[in-house]
Predict the structure.
Amino acid sequence: MTTFRNYIAGKWVASKTGKTFPNRNPADQSDVIGEFPASDPRDVDAAVVAAKKAFDGWRRTPAPKRGELIFKVGEILSRRKEEIARAMTREMGKVLKETRGDVQEGIDTAVVHGGEGRRLHGFSAPSELPNKAGWTVRAPIGVAGLITPWNFPLAIPTWKSFPALVAGNTVILKPASDTPHCSHLLVEAFEEAGFPAGVVNLIHGSGSTVGNALVEHPEVRVISFTGSTAVGRDISAKAGKALKRVSLELGGKNAMIVMDDADLELALEGVLWGAFGTTGQRCTATSRLILHQSVREEFVRRLIGRVATLKVGSGLDETTDVGPLINKARVEAVDEYVRIGTKEGELLCGGAPLRSGAHRKGCFYAPTVFDRVPPSARIAREEIFGPVLSILTVKDLDEALRCLNDTAYGLSSSIYTRDINNAFYAIQELETGIVYVNAPTIGAECHYPFGGTKDTGNGHREGGTHPVYEVFTEWKTIYVDYSGRLQKAQIDNRKNE
Ligand code: NAD
């Protein structure tokens, strides 16, 4: 049994608690990947001391040099892609083609942000006064606390850490307790790339202890959090009081509209991937399907035929379509929603955990579809985060758009139509941060902004180049007056008015 450690000040160290927790394979709960440190606020304190100490040297390192180290991490991830993808499938269950995609997203993110080291653009504008110049630069904030979920255990830590580091911050990463191994492997890549001690730190442990200690630590000046809306609200309140910069990427209740003129076969492929890819455990998962009434019957018939063919099993088996849920608690939570759903809609398929034969040791759940779900139903409104799809029926585009927007969340949406006017009208009316036309609600690319409206976040975005640097930098505005005299803005150039 391997016992893993935290990474503080460039060294792998045990937690001051001396305690550990096991990390289990969700496809086979008897398979323990290793023991990880159950850290507490003393470990967070040590990481903050290291990150603060490293900050001055790191912020003075030219940004292009910082970017070059990120490129190196990308090269290491490329070299170790297959090994990390397999470790990820073992640790969190999603199928190999998806975990290869997760690692690839980390590599792509290195390409974007490594290059950003040579841009990190500010702007200049002419001064209103003669012989005076003004411009802006982006300055780092300080120590950044990065708190991540388990569903994209490599990609999300890279989305946060790469821009934070290129901007000149030092970081402390707190991964989800279900996926500590992937973050361990990422930090190995940072170490191999040659990051100075203290610039990158890793602390394992529970959210309520380690995550909360990061949020409450006065020397951690920026928190970047991805996770549930409930925890995000709590973090926002605490960090807001301390006037910290906080970026929140939270839950979703995403929907796909299929119009009467849609390519049904394309839409069918889309909904299968959107609803059951990653076992429905994506913040952008398609959890509502809004069907135009004239295609409903035909589409539902074809959909159920296809769902029946999905193979549920270990993600390490290349023939598997749908892997396990992340842990037993999630099986119970999804099952609870399914119990609620049977009173709210018509259960067409699935509806139960899979606990026998090849599934007996894991956290498997049958792909589930509910039809005739009213918009007021809890399964149409609340995030389930599992392989459960709710079908709603509408009579026209306006009703479809109203129905799609009628949710507390605002992450991702999709419409299948061949009518260009319908497509552009939907793009205009949809309230989500991400809109897809003729593609499912999942499939973000790392060089575009990622995030949502309403209860999905607090207005920040990850990804892209400009938006994520709003999270990790301060604007510094510089004025240089080379006139040799005192010039008063707003006053001297209005003397004759
Ligand atoms: P979660 O909120 O339970 O945990 C997320 C992280 O926060 C974990 O590292 C956890 O340990 C930590 N945490 C928990 N309680 C904390 C506290 N009180 N203080 C500080 N940190 C704490 O979420 P999860 O179950 O890991 O992930 C699933 C959720 O994440 C879903 O709601 C999903 O929609 C959301 N998500 C959103 C995005 C996005 O970009 N919008 C992406 C992926 C996942």
User: Anything to note?
Assistant: The chain has two domains: 6-250+457-478, 254-445. The radius of gyration is 24 Å. The longest strand covers residues 28-37.
